[in-house]
């Protein structure tokens, strides 16, 4: 009988320990939950900020693309014999000056096909100047000078 009483006492102590451990574990779990909730809130806030930043960056890139495209011209009938970009730009500038009496040098010139060039003008105003002069002059078509200029947006 005495053994049974000792055994019961031992079981009571074990149960108290287990209860204490369960209580501690519950508190730890509660603390961890709060930490996780806090981290989730921070992540959501950061995610929202990054989304806004990405959206603004995309809008800025699109705006720059539109501005860049807005300044483009396509010119046909020009032959340039060099590969150096600066010389190409200068040659096209000289041709425009000789044919149309305007002094503009494109920012960049890209060869699309034989005798077809895409010109990226420095500003919208330069592009409009070329187009206005094109309209005024209506270049006479000859076998040597068959230059056409188109506005490409």
Description:
Keywords: Coiled coil. Residues 1-67 form a coiled coil. By secondary structure, the protein is of the alpha+beta class. It has 3 helices and 4 strands, in the order H-E-H-E-E-H-E. The chain has helices spanning 2-70, 85-100, 124-137, and strands at residues 72-76, 108-113, 116-120, 148-151. Strands 2-3-1-4 form a 4-stranded antiparallel sheet. Strand 2 and strand 3 form a beta hairpin. The longest helix is centred in the N-terminal third of the chain and has 69 residues, at 2-70. It is rod-shaped. The model has no long low-confidence stretch (mean pLDDT 85).
SSE arrangement:
Elements: H1 2-70, E1 72-76, H2 85-100, E2 108-113, E3 116-120, H3 124-137, E4 148-151
Antiparallel strand pairs: 1-3, 1-4, 2-3
Coiled coil: 1-67
Keywords: Coiled coil
Segments where pLDDT lies below 50 for 5+ residues? none
Helical content band? 55-70%
Strand content: 5-15%
* Strand ordering within the main sheet: 2-3-1-4
Oligomer classification? single chain
| Structural class assignment | alpha+beta
Shape: rod-shaped
For the secondary structure, the number of strands is 4
> How far apart lie the N and C ends?
101 Å
Mean pLDDT: 85
Radius of gyration: 38 Å
Count of separate DSSP helical elements: 3
Order of helices and strands: HEHEEHE
Main sheet overview: 4 strands, antiparallel
Tag the structure with descriptive keywords:
65% helix; alpha+beta; 3 helices; 153 residues
Produce a short descriptive summary.
Keywords: Coiled coil. Helix content is 65%, strand content 13%.
């Amino acid at each position: 009988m005495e053994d049974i009483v000792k055994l019961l006492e031992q079981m009571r102590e074990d149960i108290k320990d287990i209860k204490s451990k369960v209580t501690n574990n519950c508190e730890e779990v509660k603390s961890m939950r709060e930490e996780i909730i806090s981290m989730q809130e921070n992540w959501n806030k950061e995610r929202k900020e990054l989304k806004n930043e990405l959206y603004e960056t995309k809008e800025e890139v699109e705006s720059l693309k539109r501005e860049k495209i807005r300044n483009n011209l396509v010119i046909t009938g020009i032959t340039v014999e060099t590969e150096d970009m600066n010389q190409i730009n200068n040659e096209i500038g000289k041709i425009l000056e000789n044919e149309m009496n305007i002094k503009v040098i494109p920012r960049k010139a890209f060869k699309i096909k034989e005798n077809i060039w895409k010109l990226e003008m420095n500003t919208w105003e330069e592009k409009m100047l070329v187009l206005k002069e094109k309209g005024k002059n209506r270049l006479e078509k000859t076998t040597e000078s068959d230059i056409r200029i188109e506005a490409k947006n």
